[in-house]
Write a structure and sequence with these properties.
Blueprint: H1 2-19, H2 36-41, H3 77-82, E1 103-110, H4 115-127, E2 133-138, E3 143-147, H5 153-166, E4 173-174, E5 185-190, H6 193-205, E6 211-215, E7 221-230, H7 232-240, E8 250-252, H8 254-258
Antiparallel strand pairs: 1-7, 1-8, 2-7, 3-5, 3-6, 4-5
Region (Disordered): 56-102
Biased composition (Low complexity): 60-97
InterPro entries: SPOR-like_dom (IPR007730), SPOR-like_sf (IPR036680)
Length: 260
């Protein structure tokens, strides 16, 4: 029994010496795989990191086989570390309301004598960050039986008192909204020239001298402020200044209102 244990111990010692290469001088020892030429070709082997795959089910596509190329110039650790990583490009943030349908709104029209109200409305829109299109439309034609203009306000009031005392002319009033005819007296306003001429003949028979027919709205325009493509956010901004629009209200554009 003791002899068997000694034999097993001797065998273990011999195997250990063989596996450690201590017997290589006698031609005995394990065969080792050595390729020193591959180690010489490695570029910064200490920078190589092995990262496990995120999922075993995802397999990378095989790269096409190409002819071996010469090894690239090694990058120094300083140059690789100093290059900043590109900043991620964020997608443009667009408000959901700006991608929806747009609406058309208009303000006015402002009359020929409402320049200050028009300026107030334009200033309010600019305050809300809105820019409106300005649309001019001719004022509908009108004809007026005019007495004057007089050289002064006193002369106009004197003529007005005479007409009032006679009591024959039923329609008369000072002209207050057409500077080109002031100071003057209107003896009637009509939508066509024929009616105005009939009124002129009537007031002449009633003793009024020096009256004439003039085109009341010649060269005058009315101004409409139009906002053709408002998003929901811009509609809210417009509502915020609705009380500052020169006495006008916000309306749907005529083209949209007429659509079925």
């Amino acid at each position: 029994m003791r002899a068997l244990l000694l034999v097993l111990l001797l065998i273990n010692l011999v195997f250990f010496a063989w596996s450690q290469g201590w017997m290589a001088g006698a031609g005995l020892g394990p065969v080792t795989q050595r390729e020193p030429q591959r180690l010489a070709l490695q570029i910064h082997p200490e920078q190589v990191q092995i990262t496990p795959l995120a999922s075993s089910s995802v397999m990378p596509a095989s790269a096409p086989q190409t002819a071996p190329s010469a090894p690239a110039e090694p990058l120094s650790p300083a140059s690789s570390d100093s290059a900043p990583a590109p900043a991620p490009v964020s997608a443009p943030q667009t408000a959901a309301a700006d991608t929806g349908p747009t609406v058309c709104r208009q303000i006015g029209p402002f009359g020929a004598m409402e320049a200050s109200a028009l300026a107030q409305a334009q200033a309010a829109l600019a305050k809300a960050g809105l820019e409106a299109e300005t649309r001019n439309t001719p004022v509908p034609e009108q004809w007026m039986v005019l007495l004057g203009p007089f050289p002064s306000q006193e002369a106009m009031r004197t003529a007005l008192d005479q007409i009032s005392q006679q009591g024959k002319v039923k329609v008369f009033a000072p002209v207050t909204d057409r500077p080109r005819y002031e100071p003057g007296i209107s003896l009637g306003v009509f939508s066509n020239e024929a009616s105005a001429q009939e009124q002129l003949q009537m007031v002449k028979k009633q003793g009024v001298q020096g009256a004439r027919v003039v085109q009341r709205n010649a060269g005058l325009n009315r101004v409409t402020l139009r906002l053709p493509a408002l998003t929901s956010q811009q509609v809210k901004a417009l509502s915020g200044v609705s009380g500052q629009l020169g006495g006008q209200i916000v309306k749907t554009c005529a083209t949209e209102a007429a659509a079925p």
